[in-house]
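User: structure tokens for this one?
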Amino acid sequence: MIENPNEVVTKALLRSVRVPGLDKPVALITLDNGFDHKKPNSFGPAGLKSLDEAITAATEADPAFIAITGKPYIFCVGADITGMPLIASREQAVELGVLGHRVFARLRDSEIPTFAFVNGAALGGGLEVALHCHYRTVSTGAAALGLPEVAIGLIPGWGGSQLLPNLIGIAGAAQVILQNPLTQKTLRPKQARELGVADALFEAADFLEHSLAWAAGVVKGEITVERPEVDRDMWDAVLFFAKQQLDEKLHGAVPSANKALELLALAKEASFADGTAAETEALADLIMGDEARASLYAFDLVQRRAKRPVGVPDASLARKVTKVGIVGAGLMASQLALLFLRRLQVPVVLTDLDQARVDKGVAYVQAEIDKLVGKRRMDEGTAAKLRGLISGSVDRSVFADADFVIEAVFENLELKKQIWAEFEKIVKPEAILATNTSSLSITEMAADLTHPERVVGFHFFNPVAVLPLLEIIKGERTDDATLATAFAVGKELKKSSVLVKDAPAFVVNRVLTRFTSEVFKAIDAGTPLEVVNEAFDPMGLPMRPIALLQLVGPAVAYHVGETLHTAFPDRFADSPNLKRIVDAGLPLLVDDEINTEVVKLLEVGDTVLTGDEVRARALAALAEEIRIMLDEGVVAEAQDIDLCMILGAGYPFHLGGITPYLDRSGIAEQVTGKRFLPAGLADVRR
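Assistant:
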């Protein structure tokens, strides 16, 4: 069996527990890797071996029942994916699948009753080991439950695809195995109980005691667990609908989703042995595929690199933020106010040109707080505190004691320079001046200030509450204390921050604008909008180009495009057709179809490209632009561009962001003469 020298081994710790009313003790296995909840339990080869040994010892003790639980807050979050890149052959991948199946099956086949006491997060192989047990209880404090493998290019490979549909039915299983991973959702404990994943739900405070007592009741026959019969008549229809949805959204670009569908279909009538054998073969195929390697690379970026941004000054330089000022009271400014208020819980003050705008901004924040209370996502005590911390004023002197001031006004360089010139005279000398600009130069914005070293770019993505990326931009004179404070604030805001050099449009907007520029070159030349729009379907992007443009807003896209056209006229075209669309103000899509009125606006040439040609030209342009950005030092490494595209633009894991796709398709080398990433980092070693 392949070994992972870096495996943090989750040990299966066995102890004997006496439960009132039972003649024999209970064998309780606790999964624990020796760390707190910040490093969750997972199953690697050594961890599976430990569980195997614990089951053997438990069985030999002949207990009343065998139960598995986890360390505080964590049951188990699945396979140890750090070992996946070490798998160099399909045979090793098969061996991993077989090992997990063999160990987990001992719980399912046990003549002694087996229980899973799911006390915390249970994902992937963690939920699968619970599914193998005869009965399951779940704590109300369990943060998340699910089978998210499809999202990282894999499938539930240790029995989940066969056990779950035969436990809760095909509709629920399709939701957990396909729909939830592809929409980045998991189950809450109450949902797990309602679906039938859990047999009982207990409060977190005394979860283990209640679970032991409940299990004793089951063993003694005092409690009967009733599970509804699975409806097999609708099985094929559910999967047919699921396939239609997948084809519409992913266009076959995600092999793991298709494999999962096949396994769910097999679960209808196949024996468990045949179903799990098929799981092993499917898992091996996927582990040795590029999409899974790219997905695991992307997962690692989001889970590790995002939490340890590169190039950040020492955190000890960060200044304490006890009050935040926000210049502007429009929708973006109000969203920022709510975010700062919720995360920092310090006074936040809004200002704008007149009291009516200020009042509207404050009212928005108050209304959003009320909504959170109504949805039970915030208690009334916290809400009352936050209501007391938000305020607004047209008198800018209220900013005098603010430690962090951020502007969110119209994208106009002279306006932003004027704002900072005025506020520099009001705020204290050490206050940070942050700008939410999406494309303008931080250096130019600060050029005329007495203290340009305290100006920093703080670029959020809309919607602010949802998208996790924060581009933190260092101007030429931004000092380390300002940067350290910006990153400390970003962390408090629970954003994933990336350090970016002051360059036109920074990272996400620059990449997307180069993409949009190439799209409109094809449209301007004469390629129909429908052809351009569908050209990127084989990549499985989250949105087609026209839908993306509508989401961003043609006016915003055109403005950023103008900035980049001015900076790099040889690479960023100034499309007259995009300008016509902006001036007309018409929606690009009507009922998800291209607006025929927009088509009538266009003035185009007679060069009609195929979808393949459109895609090839756009990807070549992206490879060129990303190479230039890296050569310019816009970010430290290609990994940062991928992280930005995943977190800021929703690029899918199966692409690994963008550079792994450009590498494995050969486009990177064709255009730039070399790969972006070392071979094997995000694809199969060749």
